[in-house]
Batch of 4 targets.
Target 1
Amino acid sequence: MLTQPFFQRALLAGLAIASVAGPVGCFIVWRRMAYFGETLAHSGLFGVGLGLLLGFSLTLGAVATGVAVALLLMVMKNQRVLATDTLLGILSHASLALGIVTVGLVTGSAGDHMDLLFGDILTVSWRDVSVVWIGGALVLLILGLLWRDLIAMSVHEELAQAEGIKVKRVELGFVLLIALMTAISMKIVGLLLITALLVIPAAAARRLSNSPETMALVAAGLACVSVVMGLALSAFANAITGPAIVLSAGLLFVLTLLRPQAS
């Protein structure tokens, strides 16, 4: 099975996602945005439903709804309508439910696209692999351009703003990265599990690193190992691949708890 073309495609696609998820996930951990990332991921299903309904790209639909939900959240947060975690809870579950309903109305059964929730990496085509690698390279390029500003904002947002950093613009750019990351990851680990792949390797890497750059590299490495372990578990134990990848990441995190945290 490991020598089959479909497995090789899955491995290449998974490694591409993992290489990007690690560095992006570091900022999600540093800025305590895990619930925010989950909300954008859930909104992606509504984008899929709109794509099916209107006949355009599902990836484009997921990115568009992710950005729309993020902008809505930023506006409501600035107006102090509700506490941020309350807003996230409302938008996260409402967008997920709306997505399931929309997909169900279009296809007659929401179950027809449940692979988008939990991933189906073993079915990726060479075209999917190309899209993932190109999208991943774009995410890393933008992240590299925003790196210093995001580091400064993660340390002290008000001080970063005082130093002339366009905080709102950088924050919007990072939100776009998460939305793009979610869209290109739909078929790999699924909309419900992408946040776990973003957060768990980064959280594990935090215990093994003493600089932001090291943490980003370690997080990417741990995410890649999680993909390999998850695919192997899928091949030899007939486990569902997306959850197996996330479970592997969780196991690696537990192992990092056994050693002292880097100073």
Target 2
Amino acid sequence: MTRAVRVVLASQALRAVGYGVTAVQLGAILRAGGLAPVEVGLVLAAIVAGSVTASLTLAQWGDRIGRRRAYAALYAALACCGVVIASGAPLWLLALVAMTGALSTEVIESGPFTTLEQVMLAGTGTHHKGIVRRFGLYNAVATVAGAAGALLGTLPPDRLVLGGVLVVIGTVGALLAFELPATVEVSAPPPGSAQGRTPAGSRPVVTRLAALFAVDSLAGGFIVQAYVAYWLGLRFGATTQIIGITFAAVGVLQTLSFLAAPIVAGRIGLLPTMVFTHIPSNLLLAAVPLVPTLPAAMGLLLARACLSQMDIPTRQAYVMALVPPGERTAAAAVTNTARYVTRPAGPALAGLLQSFGLALPFLIAGATKTGYDLALWQTFRQVRLPADREPLAERK
């Protein structure tokens, strides 16, 4: 394992712990600070908007600024967020620092940090079959560390503690950024070149991928874990203890699926793994509201967890393999942002649909995700990855 990979994995684990604590405590801390629901919503909206803005900024300028500098700047911004939270600063200042894109509303984020980490993992000189192994480990580390952070977040909410955690993580992360080797950077672009953007040659491919990923993410928003927990309680009277144990088991199975995905991809390829592990998981999802008992529904959710996440490391590796080295930052930023923007609409639509039938969110999510898989296969099955002909490495 190279130094770049070790540093990225350590940084991801550190940040996931912080995001786990934040996801659990931030809302309670904002409420305790006297913010009205509308004001809390504005802060959370600023966090989402910041992730989108920072990702798109990286798409345009990330490689020109330098990946290590941009990575360190994001961690410095995270430390600033911690200072603002700990000091109990006014709403406008909290919203302002949230716009940096360093915070996240999710335990596992898909914002600017992920964009940089994807391209740094992909640019370390290995064929894409090796890269997907790294992405599998990367996502497994994020899942485990995020769960640990969420457990820490069950302690009594305290803005000084949360702010202090973010300050420490931001400071250590910024120091780790400068431990990254020079090999994570791209070669300096010639004057007037479009490197660091999405040139005309790759733009159609990246646009199609982003559109498809946005559809998949929107469908996934219909069945976020918070909604599934609500539905299990409404449909079967499941207690929070049963739901918590089920979700813990789901997390373990998802972690194992991240680690298994590279093995499957090594045998059948990246795109077949993305599509043909995802379709069965979609069918299992659609079947959940059709079974008559809680144990049967839990069994289907656990079976789905064995397959549903295998497309994540393979998808990340596929995007990196599909575009030239100088365009990977832009491609990662655009495809990640497309997923991030559409996902919040899913829970709202699920809430509207349940008045017409409790099964509808599951059925629509399963059908839409299956349509995404079929469209992805039809669009890209004839596309030969450049990395199938040469190593996925940056030519110096």
Target 3
Amino acid sequence: MPTDNSTPVSTHTMDADALQKLIYLLHATDDPLIQEQALITLGNSAAFSVNQDIIRNLGGLSVIGGMLSDCVPKVKEKALNALNNLSMNIKNQEEIQVYITQVCGNVESAPLNSDLQLAGLRLLTNMSVTSDYHPKMITSIPCLLHLLSEGTERTQIQVLKVLVNLSANPAMTRHLLRGQVPTLLLLLDNCTNRDILLRALVFAANLKKNVNNKDGTMDQYSESSIFFKLFGDSTAFAQKLASLLHHPDAEVKEQVVRILTQ
């Protein structure tokens, strides 16, 4: 679905000529208000798969990606929203992946819990669904874990979507286990927002599965690491899981059982 509510009329019916004019306008103007509106229109049109291909074939991805270097936060945010819709296409992902490092940088430098930060996290979520581009996100793991501790619930949910995707890849296990999240066990509580709790449990379950398969266990981990909190001194973790067996949500209990029986 479109990522912006200010949808121009009938963006799905725009033909290649109209889209080409928008891309040219975006490339030619320095006016941030015009850039923002062009990005909104391109982003909403990209919610329709036929337009995703047209925009790529017209060279629009590089023009939109170029906006990530803009100094105006709203322009960067709308560029990220447009790329997010465009990234629902595998061929587009192959071009968008060159911006992952820059997107990670935008997430890290953006104000905490801002729309800009969330837009970057949404794009990273789409780009991490497959493991193809996970190596480009390794250096951002400390930032993601920091946001998991410091962010609002809205930010935490979006961060966990990325972390769950990364944790499904055995090759990322040791990088994640080295990370530090002082509040990780605090999230595993019956009072935690259900969406956050469920994703945190899936994250832990994925890591445990990979640890059991001997991925990432050859490294040394500090006492503040995720590895130590979950698997090193597991008493507190085990107590959390025992309590969560009484959670009213069936999916939550399913993930707890998954962790306990692996």
Target 4
Amino acid sequence: MNSPSNNTDLPDFSQRILTWFAVHGRHDLPWQQHLLAMPNPYPVWISEVMLQQTQVTTVIPYFTRFMQSFPTVQDLANADWEQVAEHWAGLGYYARARNLHKGAKQLAQIIADTGDFPQTVQDWQAIAGVGQSTAGAIVAMGVRATQEKGVICDGNVKRVLTRWAGIDADINKTATTKTLWALAERLTPATDSGLYAQAMMDMGATVCTKSKPNCLFCPIEQDCVAKSQGRQTDYPVKSKKSPNPSKYSLAIFLTDNDGKTLWLQRPDNGIWGGLYCLPLFFVKKNKQNQTIADFHSDFDNEYTLAEQVIFEFLSKHSHINSHDFSQYFGEKMIKHSLTHFHWFLTPITIVINDEQKKALNERLNDLALAENWTWIGQNDVQNLAISTAMQKLM
């Protein structure tokens, strides 16, 4: 690993970054607080969570709508989960929304007890879903009363630092992470850490980009190791991951004689937690052309209790053939990529009569499910909080 100490004097680094930001940085993002006399950590927190794994252009309309509906942390804390989920639907990584809702309740209680938001990085890390970099960003950009500087080291910052310092170790390794955090701490100025945090994020997002870094406009290119080597895109170094497995499922449009379709609310602890979803019938998982799980071997693990009941009901009434799911797959299949696997979903429509619907409803009611379920017309589905995958299927 190359040593960051080979570069020029560290205080000059932050000054060059801040000078660049003053002229070329983004100053009109809706969550920014640096132009306000009294910054508010609430919008900074919301934006930082939304920006995890998501681009700024995607986040802006979600953030704007979110803040219109929940202008204060107390509004968010008092909102029903279904309302929060509906505002998040389509943004992905839904555990973030769960943590926001939980975190808002924590923050509302802290404010009730102390009269203010948490003031330190350590205290912010006690809030659900807030890690070290997010806490640093909130303190740096949203909490001016504290003398503690906020240090960030997110993906954008890591890319800038590994290139500038020539850190050629695997960025996913613990030792490399410690090196980068130590460097970020040394480079962050004691004053103006909020401006510096925004500047570093802007550097990574607009200049020191992943595939086409614009070195001509970079304020630190003169002593950037990667630039001197002509190896900008070789940094950061990441170990290659094995290909993600693929999962295949049927998405059941279970429809009654009035054209209403059955939707299930997903369990909190899992993919699309708390959102509404069509019943999904698991078929198989593949990895490198090898079947690693199938319907018969993974039935209990892959199905919610409601889906197990629905599957048994449809099998009993000969609406579906569990022995040959292949007959259902065709041109309507959609691909939806998640963090750890690719999900191939094939929609099929099954119509049941009034007597069958009554029997199924009674069976679902008998279970006293923790999750909700509802029959709803196609025009009213827009009022449900559903995932992007379900929107594709619709």
